């Protein structure tokens, strides 16, 4: 007969499977809250806790499904995306209506006032059916060694973006919002690193958000935002930033230093080495450097973002063309082959670290 401990352990095992089987329900409830702008609605009441009816009244619909909303909010409260308490809204003891407030998590989901740093566009991007469908192909990736995004959409992610303006916008907006957040952290963690640089090229810089943020803190830097032509074609103008369209596998514009955020993780080792060699040609040999903002995997690490590093590695299987997240040894190998034998890793208060690498 099983002991009580064994029964408990078995049941916990079962509960864990249920949890992971439906983990996507968390993502979908989160996406729903962002689509309906629930964080903005709560915020619009000026910081006071609000009732469900008050939230529902600001959803643009003639007849919002309030009972659905209540159930979605109940889950999101349990997940600490929102908080709820039963304080009476009018002070009377008989009223026990639930009142909802923002938490430190939902403050990252604002899209209107107060949303300078927001992950909302990233939620809308990552949880869109276009980016969800390749996740169903992980098994086929293992079976065939193929590329999940191509299996789902018949072409690579960058070709899909160049043919589909709506996806292009969704993707670039998602990237730009995370850039703003991580660049703040990068500037905090790598203050002196940018000081001696006169010109900086952001390779694969998207619509230029990261470079614009860096230059806000370092107005002496002349920035070149370099990305594929269909991406820079939609980029807004930023002060002291020139947009240049091209292909980093052909050539990279010249500058004192290269910045690359979330580029190398999109590619396999051979492609990374090609990109690094082009970066090396673009900077002065003596005092040039590449500043790479990427995850440095610590698979067993206990840091706040270490588990997310492993999740991002799955994102790379689902969305990239042969890319992966790398641990320090893997970084060292491609840096050396790409012409950067010397490097430092600097931690920042974000998902990514800075890998500062030198040609000599
Ligand atoms: C994951 S996104 C990162 C964007 C930006 N660095 C950021 O972190 O927000 C990768 C970027 O690489 C760009 N890219 C892909 N292939 C490229 C190529 N061959 N040459 C230049 N840029 C490329 C994409 O258009 C995209 O903007």
UniProtKB/TrEMBL annotation:
Domain O-methyltransferase C-terminal: 135-340
UniProt-annotated catalytic positions: 265 (proton acceptor)
InterPro entries in alphabetical order: COMT-like, COMT_C, COMT_dimerisation, SAM-dependent_MTases_sf, WH-like_DNA-bd_sf, WH_DNA-bd_sf
Domain O-methyltransferase dimerisation, residue spans: 18-111
Highest taxon listed in the record's lineage: Eukaryota
UniProtKB keywords: Methyltransferase, S-adenosyl-L-methionine, Transferase
Record's keyword annotation contains Nucleotidyltransferase: no
Alphabetical GO biological process terms: methylation
PROSITE patterns in UniProt: SAM_OMT_II
Secretion signal, residue range per the UniProt entry: none
GO molecular function: O-methyltransferase activity; protein dimerization activity
Keyword Methyltransferase belongs to the record: yes
Family to which the UniProt record says this protein belongs: Belongs to the class I-like SAM-binding methyltransferase superfamily. Cation-independent O-methyltransferase family.
Name of the featured protein: Xanthohumol 4-O-methyltransferase-like
Gene: LOC115727154
